Amino acid sequence: MTGATAGEPPPQAHGSAPAVPLAALSACFGAAARDPLGRPCRDARLTNFVYPHPAVAQQIPNSPCEPVERQEHMNVCGFGAAPENATETIALVGDSHASHWRAALDVVAQEHGWRGLSMAHTSCPLSKAVRDLEGAERFTACADWKRAVFTWFEQHPEIHTVFVAGLSGGSSVLPGGGRGRFATSVAGYRDAWRALPATVTRIVVIRDTPKMTKETGACINRALARDRRPGASCSMPRREVLDRDPLVVAASGMPASRVRTVDLTRMFCDRACYPVVGGALVFRDQNHMTAAFSTTLGPYLLRKVDALMADW
After folding, report:
1. Quick count: other Cβ atoms within 10 Å of Cβ 87?
2. Is position 7 within any domain?
3. What is the tens place of the pLDDT at every residue in 64-82?
4. Which of 170, 217, 226, 291 could form an SS bridge with 182, CB 3.0 to 4.6 Å?
5. Overall number of domains in the chain
6. Maximum distance among all alpha carbons in the chain?
7. CATH code for the domain of 154
């Protein structure tokens, strides 16, 4: 993946969000710039380039997901291969930090001919731990969604592989059983996975992303205005922005025959974590990926998933 083989990046790309295929920007656009197995992919045209611009990124939704099923407490949407062509059906479950991986997982699903079904609830990962949510309505909605998800899996024994992800840190649960918040979060994930039916034979945990700050967007704007590299200029120390992930810790205590982890932190960070990688805006807000960057992670998520599946 070395060199730039595609056409010139659109000149308006860091001032708006043109409907342009990402591959047309540059062969080095996004995660390819940090490919750990290849030589560095560099394109000078991406040095002071950002797509999409921070000013519009929050208005751009996650990758498309076709409504499939609507219930009182949960919705299911589809991605990946068309149902009539699918070789297998997989599920993606969790909070909004699961949803922002859908663009990357869509690449994996398309490659393998999988039909993906997504079930997500903002601020409500699939965990038996009780979320510390303000307001009775949000608290109840989260609990109802979880119950509906467990019931749905009982009704869909054809789903054997489930991808899960969630907000890292573990501070947003009510501590219980004499444990602190993080330990409660870890236990909650393990209990949730044990509660899934035996027909779910593979659970793939995707390690959470780093987080930026409220000032990151403004920093990127200043860097662009001063013709400076926005990724390097606005990077943050890894130790400050990459939280310990309770899902990863939970997975480490589960049988590897059923639960395994993929970690793509290398695509975001070395000693620092970067808000712009290969000209792609990584985050649309403080902690959610843009669909643009998530899509470029697809080939690297595919590499990790294939390695897991090879000896599973």
Report:
1. 9
2. no
3. 999 999 999 999 999 999 9
4. 170
5. 1
6. 59
7. 3.40.50
